[in-house]
Amino acid sequence: MEKKKIIFIVNPISGTQSKDTIVELIKKHLDKEKYDFDIIPTQFAGHAIELAAIAAAENVFMVVAIGGDGTVNEVGRSLIHTNTALGIIPCGSGNGLARHLQIPMDPKKAIDIINEGVTSCIDYGTINSIPFFCTCGVGFDAFVSMKFAESGRRGLLTYLENMLHESLKYKPETYNIELCDGNEVKTLKAYLIACANASQYGNNAYIAPQASLHDGLIDVTVLEPFTVLDVPALSFQLFNRTLDQNSRI
Q1: Arch. (CATH architecture) of 4-120
Q2: Helix axes 47-57, 69-77, angle to 10 degrees
Q3: What is the DSSP string of 124-138?
Q4: pLDDT for 48-78, tens place per residue?
Q5: pLDDT-derived band at 24, boundaries 50, 70, 90
Q6: Which pLDDT band holds residue 95 (cuts at 50, 70, 90)?
Q7: Does the pLDDT of residue 163 top 70, yes or no?
Q8: How buried is residue 44: exposed, middle or buried, by Cβ count under 10 Å (0-12/13-18/19+)?
Q9: CA distance 72 to 63
Q10: Pick from 122, 169, 239, 243: most CB atoms within 10 A?
Q11: In CATH, what is the architecture of 130-245?
């Protein structure tokens, strides 16, 4: 049986986990009877897009993103409508898409799934002509993500620090939402608007509990302005997968 080719693209600065350990696990546990492989670290922002595009042009079986949702998004956008599959070994700060897909956070177990070689098609969305696979949005969540990227530090703790700091001064804004038929525009004030292909931001924070990767739809969650009294319920429901039941949604 002819071996299939896998390219592993490693983001060395994603998350807080050692990538050297993951590389050693790949060398030890990847099924060598099924696969040939190369492991390539990224060297600059956007490098994963280029590397994945080259792999797809060479018709390799799979490109595996080793990193967080940013790395996954860069790799995935180059594989859309190609014969090359996207694999994930999650080691970012949130790992939203991997968690939605129930890919284990344990690298060895993620490699075991890659060894099975089973693939399926998923949806994707676009914003400003740029594809996304998990979530995107405007408002507070996008603002915190920008601050997180600017901070130069990674990990859940850094994200929470940015979220708590910015929440003290962030003000809701007014948005115009054009419905898909183009015949109606809704104007509303919102703390955030999340467009979800997958159900969660990451770390099991379910911003769109009913979202599916296979229904051809994007779920849109609008969080209206709220008071400090609403925070406990919103926080609980975000992680309890019941946020869509809150009256502020």
Answers
A1: 3-Layer(aba) Sandwich (3.40)
A2: 40
A3: -EEETTEEESSEEEE
A4: 999 999 999 999 999 999 999 999 999 999 9
A5: very high
A6: very high
A7: no
A8: exposed
A9: 10
A10: 243
A11: Sandwich (2.60)
CA of residue 214 relative to chain centroid, distance: 16
Mean of all residue pLDDT scores within the chain: 89
Q: Which of 124, 73, 120, 116 is nearest to 95 (CA)?
A: 73
Give residue 28's pLDDT band: very low, low, confident or very high (50, 70, 90). Answer: very high
Q: What is the pLDDT of residue 224?
A: 93
Q: Are strands 192-196 and 219-223 parallel, antiparallel or unpaired?
A: antiparallel
Can you tell me which residue has the tokens 């890919």?
A: 103
Q: Where in the chain is the domain with CATH 3.40.50.10330?
A: 4-120
Q: Are 200 and 102 in contact (CB under 8 A)?
A: no
Number of helical H runs and strand E runs in the chain:
8, 11
Q: Confirm whether pTM is higher than 0.70.
A: yes
N-to-C CA span, the chain: 53
List C-alpha distances in Å: 119 to 1, 40, 88, 226. 19, 22, 12, 42
Q: What are phi and psi of 63, to 5 degrees?
A: -115, 125
CA–CA separation, 64 and 57 (whole Å): 15
Distances (CA, A) of 194 to 21, 60, 231: 35, 34, 18
Task: Collapse the DSSP code of 176 into the 3-class scheme (helix H, G, I; strand E, B; otherwise coil) and give the result.
Answer: strand
The pLDDT, as a whole number, for residue 183 is: 77
Tokens of 140: 């507070």
All CATH 2.60.200.40 domain ranges of the chain, comma separated, are: 130-245
